[in-house]
Amino acid sequence: MKTYYFIFSKTDLLLQRTSDGGYTIPCCNSVPVKTFAWTHIINVTPEADGTEVKTFCIDNPSQIEITDEVLATAGYDFMGLRESFYHLTEALYTKAGKCHELLYWDRNTQFCGVCGAPMRVQTDISKVCTACGKEVWPQLSPAIIVLIYKQDEVLLVHARNFRSNFYGLVAGFVETGETLEEAVRREVMEETGLTIKNLRYIASQPWPYPCGLMVGYMAEYESGDIHLQREELSKGAWFRFDNMPRVPQKLSIARKLIDKWLAQYGVALEQD
To answer: Which of 36, 51, 112, 130 sits 20 to 30 Å CA-CA off 253?
Structure first.
């Protein structure tokens, strides 16, 4: 049976060109590029139809040697993982994200954090220390994100770590010893000074940059005036559904929450 090969160079993903001008993930009977004795190929959870999935990194994409005739004939490109969202099916993009997270985990767990001895692969998603027996699994950092609405307005904020001038939603990591719902209320109060009500879960999304899990909520404004946490946010305001600024791209759960809220007013943003 053929195998999907998710091949990375840092955060760039090797994509195969298709006959219709699109892209897909190489799916071959054998490894489609030249590998070496030190190439660590990781087995990933197979697809629902039984198709195997493997992933690995290459150091120098300029020296890549294609060994699969189909891939060599079709052509290939390296593309950033984020950009690949717009060229792959959602299922393949999601699997690519999982592979990226596993490679990140593998790179950062070569040695034991307790005694410093080398780690040994135990299963596809676990390692064990060769000296003290310490076991480790892939890191997962849960974070909440919440859309806060007040009648026909939504609260949008600009975080200082945003790479461009768009507005997003209140978000933050879940702290030790708190529930997801407690994390939402704490982050809203810390970042905006507001209280909320009618909190409800909407959806979750893996966020492989590098190992997050975003848990999305909607909540209704209850009380308070906006007082931004200036260390985290540079701007924040209420926006009516028919006067929206630039918002996050469609690959993010922030955009999915915003689009879901706008849909009740029959609004569909003409943004990527």
So the answer is: 51
Q: What are the extents of the domains in the chain?
A: 3-107, 109-139, 141-263
pTM over 0.85: yes
- As a whole-number percent, the residues of the chain with pLDDT over 70 amount to 97
Q: Which residue has the tokens 């490894």?
A: 31
Mean pLDDT for the stretch of residues 58-87: 81
Residue 33 carries which DSSP code? B
Give the residue, 145 or 38, on which the prediction is more confident.
145
Residue 72 has pLDDT above 70, yes or no: no
The CATH number, out of the four listed (3.10.350.10, 1.10.230.10, 3.10.20.30, 3.90.79.10), of the domain defined by the range 141-263: 3.90.79.10
Q: Which ranges in the chain belong to alpha helices (H)?
A: 69-74, 81-84, 90-107, 180-192, 253-263
Q: Give the number of other Cβ atoms within 10 Å of residue 75's Cβ.
A: 11
Structure tokens at 221: 């404004």
Confidence of residue 93 (pLDDT cuts 50, 70, 90): very high
CATH number belonging to the domain at 3-107, selected among 1.10.287, 3.30.1460, 3.90.79, 3.40.50: 3.90.79
Pairing of strands 76-80, 126-129: unpaired
* Helix, strand, coil share (%) of the chain residues, nearest 5: 20, 35, 45
* Pick from 156, 144, 155: nearest CA to 246: 156
* Average pLDDT across the chain, whole number: 94
Q: In which residue are the tokens 């009740």 written? A: 264
